[in-house]
Bifunctional uridylyltransferase/uridylyl-removing enzyme
Amino acid sequence: MRSDPTGSQNNGPVPAGKSAGAGPPASSGGSVVASSSDAAADLVRARTQLLDGGDARHRRLDAPALRQALVDLHEFWLTTKGAELGIKPDSGFALVAVGGLARREMLPYSDLDLVLLHDDVDPKHVSEVADQLWYPLWDAHIKLDHSVRTVPQAIQVAAKDLTAALGMLEARHLVGDEELSNLLIGGVRREWRTGIRSRFDELVEQARARWSRSGEIAHRAEPDLKNGRGGLRDVQLLDALAIAQLTDAVPGLGPEVPGGGLDYSHRRLLDVRTELHRVAGRARDQLRAQDADEIGAALRIGDRFDLARTLSDSARTVSYSVDVGLRTAGNALPRRGLSRLRRVPVRRPLDEGVVEHAGEVVLARDAQPTKDPGLILRVAAASAQTEIPMAATTLNRLSEGSPELREPWPKEALNDLLVLLDSGRNAIAAIEALDRTGLWGRLLPEWGAVRDLPPRDAVHTWTVDRHLVETAAYASGFTTRVSRPDILVLSALLHDIGKGRGGDHSVVGAELAIQIGNRLGLWPTDVALLSAIVRHHLLLPETATRRDLDDPATVQSVVDALDGDTMLLELLHALAEADSLATGPGVWGDWKSSLVGELVRRCRMVMAGDRLPTPDPLDPEQVERAADGGVHVDLRPEGGQHTFVVTVIAPDKPGLLSDAAGVLALHSLRVLSASVGGSGDSAINTFVVSPKFGSPPPAGLLRQELIRAMAGDLDLLKMLEKKERDAADSQPVRGSGETGVPMLYAQAPPRLIWFDGTEPGEVILELRAEDRLGVLCRLAKALEKRGADIRWAKVSTMGSAVVDSFCLRLADADSRATRQGIEVAILAVVPSPRPPKPVDT
């Protein structure tokens, strides 16, 4: 930190021919301080002995001890020299340290940042004292940043220059009139606290500009330890916010989090930078690859990969802390004028036990983390879906009070995990927050082996754990390409989970996928499918780029490896693209895409087509109840804490499916799966639902409203539109205190697939799209308006994605115009793709 960035700002006297912060002139002032050169030479010799330790006479100090020894050495010299020059308690002078010396973080080749304060002393005398203090240091070739000021001058500079203000916030008295130093320190801090509202935006913009220039320490091959995102400047930024009384200096983290918390991460970064100075033999902030092994060995961390992992962990902890600190500080800014009269922010419900308050996701007042293990995932899913960050206090409360999820997980917990992963790039920040606070590792204990694990080849941009999350984010955009979007995003998250354990990571990962899949509560067949994807996730790209695709044996080898499973092939194709895109720029291009696509096409030809969707069998008891021709609605728990089964039996008339689905949506019952069929003149529709909030309504109320809807007394579509607008109106627009209605953007484009039915005039339509409030009701209405008779339907909601199959009887089933009309009607009611956002690197 430069306490005086430009010499022109220094209004106090400086040595002849010099400006504040500059080095000595080529030939000036030597006679004035010739007698002081020997004293400075002693300082240089002592510094040299400290840095050259390790021989028989001098013990090599470790990094923390070396910093403390350098602080003691420079303070001793400066206090001794100050006393010799008459800088005493009653002299009207004070010497103040800023920068590393003030923070007691003196590095081997750090600049010496000093401010000489005087109480309107005679300029000639001030110049003499300054000459005799600065020249010995210059003559000894010690890097010096200095200024000479009165207290009002220094405070005025801090009020105008943000960089100078940040430096003087750390000021510490060394020698002389301590009251003078206290006036400066107190004045600068008081000015900082009172003026922070007007300077906060500049402070944030300065930090972002620095991050843009220097990048993220956690994901750079040669990181800037001082200025990079997650570096030492960010720790100083947190201290400045704490001095402004806007946030805690250690926000949102405790000692039990991965990496040991913010203080430990700060010390680690300091230790690495200390050894970097010692190895380089000069001041340096950027860690070069060729120095990493030596620094890792000196700190007893390991080789360059172990050092990179340590730096990633520390930098990501600091980066998360800064995000929390800036957000907390922004909410705590003092209000002025009419803004003081603004109402206290309301608490807007997002999910069961989860609300938005003051731009953060927090727990509802009646939430009970100690009795609700699934609350962690509901909070994270709500954060990712709304792009609203989770409050640090909420994460701490969950970390301290939430019990472990029972195994296998309840279905609603798995569904919340899928919703989180389906949120695309919004999921990255949510998962990072969970990970930095120890919650992600509680959900996935296997994650510890890949956390902050550095890549072994240069083509990878991210650490292994971040690569997995990036792959899941890309895969969420491909969920409509596959029939099992839930397995796709889970496999994307786990495909490299076997790394960091030795052996073939695909084989190790496949075993771990079985372990994780069983814990998540997947069906045994889905566990096997997940394990197979992890085992073979490199099969398509490696075969396509290294083997002859014209050789039938090449294609047959892939088909044999996959046991002819077309679903597995489909999922591996989507994962191959997501994995490549998440690896780094240029890994996935037209050449690789065409090769993999051609391999998949030839494998499909050998495997002979896709599977045809089929309806679920009817329950004999329900068939018996349908014989009376009445309207029946039953509701019973399905096994999970927030999952219920609703069975609707009613006369089979056009519009029944849309009416039943609309009534469920109006009561905030999210349809997780549905089976629609019939027996005789009655329809039997079974819905597995999850209430958005609280408990479901009584079955009798659902039956009454269904009868009203069937009679035409309820305009369900209009009521759903109003409910959707009301929900959107309650969500805040990021960056403002107002609310707005966001567009219904999806991660992936919807996809429609047509199959020929088993009877004349019947077709089967499969829709893969993202979920929306009342989407099943809207789809059924759209099909009914196009004259389609829904014979049966099979509906599945997997996280934020839906895979719905409808068997339709059409007047002209083979007409291309008829099918196109149905497609247009369906695409009008499902979420459309969101515009692409730039990827942060």
User: Anything to note?
Assistant: The chain has five domains: 7-24+31-197, 221-335, 347-443, 457-610, 622-732+743-833. DSSP finds 30 helices and 17 strands in the chain. Residues 457-610 form a domain with the Hypothetical protein af1432 fold (CATH 1.10.3210). The first helix runs from residue 37 to 51.
